[in-house]
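pipeline stage [seq->struct] | target=TIR domain-containing protein | organism=Strongylocentrotus purpuratus | residues=627
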Amino acid sequence: MDAQQNLTVKQKAMVEAHCHGIDEFLVKFKESQKLEAVTFIDDRNILGMIYHLKTGDAKSAILKYLVSYDEIFEIFTLVWKSRVKANISTFLNSQTLWTFSYSISNLTDCSEELCYAFGEKGLLTLLFRDLKTGTLGDRHISYALTIIYNCCWKVSENRVICREFVDTLQECSQSKNPEIQADAFLALSYIVDKSEVHKISLNEPCLKFLLLTLKSAMSEPGRRFHGYSTFEVLQGLNQLAINDCNKLLIVKLGGIDVLERILMEEGSSNEEKRWAARGIWQLAFKEENKVKIHQRTTLLNALEKIKETTEDCDIKDACSGALFVINDVLDIDDEFKGHIPICRDGGHSSVKNEVSSGHVEGHIMISYQHASQERMLEVKCHLEESGYNVWMDVDKMKGDILDSMAKAVQRASVVLVCMSHKFKESQHCRTEATYAYTLKKDIIPLMLQDKFTPEDWLGALMGMKKYYPMFSDDLMRQCLPDLVSELSDRGKREKLDLVVPSDDEVTGASNPTSHAQRQRDGTAEDDVDCSGGNKDDKPTGNGDEGNSRSQTTVDLGKWDEKKAGEWLRSYGIDTSKDSFKKVDGTRLKQIKKLLNLAPEFCLKSLKDELGLCLWDVLALVDALEKL
């Protein structure tokens, strides 16, 4: 098996032994296709043995082998149908079937492949349809929900399947059994649309169950309790805390105490600390919570210490985000919206002071979620060609991401907020947008997703502002002139000729001094393309035909895929890959712009998306520079 290539001799022997056990377990069922034939050899529960193996490459290899057998899913289907019909006890080997059933449930907690197969083979739909009848007892409901929750948590593709059964999960969330409620709410938290967050409003018994489970798991050697790991409960609470009522309830029932303990305990893993810090960050978006968190010196010191000492970038980012929101961001749609952000030293926000102390304001900042990056790079290029100074975090982020973002907001004349579901869901995007609101920056909304309606915090931020739809190429082309008209002189480069920002690398701005020098040299801004060269530059040399390829003036917009392919091959670039079939002159022009705007991102995309080797990348860059 390919999965065994990196295993030690001892691990390979263990894998082979367990795979042999799987074969033995299935052999009689393969022959008869009847449940009566399902038995554990020598009373050894091979599935339970696999579950209790230490997580690692060997266990993954065994689970992949298990999932490769269709018979496993055939047995599961027969067992489940028998359980639902309440006739499983008629089999002599009913205990074996119960054991098999619960072992499969446990294994969905540690195998993405198994969870994916449950969705692909229609087993999630099978479970939901029986849940929907409303005739199952708590034992069967709890069993089904455990599998459904694990499959939603681990495999995003399964969430699409489960979207059809949101109402069924909602009904389960109203059960009197806290464990059933918990699994239903956790599953819902991964599949509901963010405009439906009211559907994951927790009640006290359910949240108390989750917090007790979390504390109990923290006290266990394996960091697991009642089938839940510390990590998954933390991640689940983060999902549930998207609902503002849940934010308040989590704090009310002592959730901050648990998160603080995880951050401070030496036994906590990096993964646990990251989600604990993200939890504090999420909870702090409610001003009422923020006030309480701000009074907890021990917690704030723990976040500061971890931020300064950890080498894990994700943990550092989570701690930075939490501290930034606690100290500097004013909630938008809260009853406290008239308050000034509090600061740990009792004064005003430290980052706000940088603006009030005379720092330069002047660029257009683009606040977007990564999925919108390609379109926003086009907007950025258009604005720069129109004479604007534009900040975008493609490859300008140096050092602390939150600090770079804060400086970018502080120095912005206007912030373009790129609205979409993913933007609304992102903690980073919410932090960025609400900080712009806190500093009373001019905000212009851009709509990046068709039929998206901004609600909750994003709806409050946008209010009645006019937005520009840019979720298609045609709409973007139509709206850009109007956007430029609304921006007017705000963020124009000419305004920055008077002063020099203290940190150009952080703001991502074009160098104002260089621009002023071009003005004095008599080179008008309109004569400069986005690559920094003059539009009217002519090839240098003696004019011989041999030098004509040093720089060529062509209309790329007229090149079709065939012409573009011929040109690429003339520079020795291999265009045989399928990824080149859509490359025409317009695409080449876009690549050239992207190469100048965001070289690191562009080079990575050429390798990852087009599948170019290093030499082809270098050849393409050289060729584009000569156009």
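stage status: PASS
auto-comment: Confidence is low (pLDDT under 50) at residues 333-360, 495-551. The first strand starts at residue 224 and ends at 225.
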